[in-house]
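Mods, move this if it's the wrong board.
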Amino acid sequence: MNELCSIDEEKTVLMPYKPPLELAVISENTINSYSFVCVDTVFYSVPEELVGKEVTVKKYHDEIRVFYENMEVCRHKRAFGNGTYRVNIYHYLNTLQKKPGAVKNSAALRQIPRLKAIFDAHYADKPRRFVEIFIENKHLPIDEIVALFETNTFVAQKVSALDIVKPITSVATATTASLNGYSQLVMAKLAP
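Not the wrong board. Structure tokens:
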């Protein structure tokens, strides 16, 4: 007859736990002077304080992870294509704080088109304020920072797409008038 064993008794005869199998190619790389690590001819940004340091890179099928002194310092969605760049603006905040004029042409900002449009429309003449807001909110994910900038700029100024297009022509003026008339008509229909 089978006797029932307690869990504690069974634990003594179980095999030790094995961590999940990682399917990654591991390599050692040096961070270049622009704060990039090159993996398969693709350049990935890393925090700027690691320039010149040796890092370990784990290349998975869908992402790369960069480790320094056995601590993960960043990860990127994997890219393909010779000379392609994946840039995270968070990796360059110290430099941008010292040189706010560099924001305008930064590759990091160009990789976030919505944020680049906001910068060009509202912060091109005050890049230092743009960087300050970014640093104050660096704990937020990039999508939330973009939403924050959109809220601060578009709600405060009620900018329409036609206001951004320059110069304003008679066609644009007529279109704006038509849209305003249409919106008043719709609002009148919706009113009780």
